[in-house]
Specification:
The protein has 206 residues and is mainly α. It is built from seven helices and no strands. The protein is globular and about 55 Å long.
Amino acid sequence: MKNSKNIRLIELLIVTAVAFGATLFKSVCILLTGAEFTYSEFIKYPMIFMGSLTVNKLAITALVIYFIIKPGRSLKELGFSWYWTDFFLSIVLLIVVELATRLCSYLLYEVYYVTTNNYLYAAPKNIGFIKGGINVWSVADKLVNPFFEEFFFRAYIISEVKFLTNNLGLAFFISVTLQGMCHLYQGFGSALIVSVSFIIFSLYYI
């Protein structure tokens, strides 16, 4: 059992580093230095830029699946299943996320203003690559990214940390914190607000 946990810990660290190591490093650096993305390469070659993102996400997803099925495990262990009620539940979930995000945004603005007497700038920054127009790869990324983030942060991270530590609360915390930190490039306020949705999605998953 101990050897199995060690192997899965190593696999978890490898996949996490490959999947979000660069993004996490870049996000923290941008937050600390105040640098901004110009995305000149995206402006010149949008299909190549978005295509590389999509291919990378698909490759990482395949790597995670390999680590799961290699020892004979099933994707169902991660909650990967389909039910006809999922469609309706997803609509309810999106409504809850939207309302909660708006409420938390309002509260965050108010608390920040009361404590600092300044307005909080929480509009997302450095998202020019998202608004770069429509092409085959930008559409593909919009389809792949939600599945990729939910599969990795929710299904994989939570299940593996829970197995390694036997602590669901810690698994929940690591999942939300890691995903939130990967969005720090948008600014601290924006990352904090979007993390509300990560909290709700993680609560729903567990």
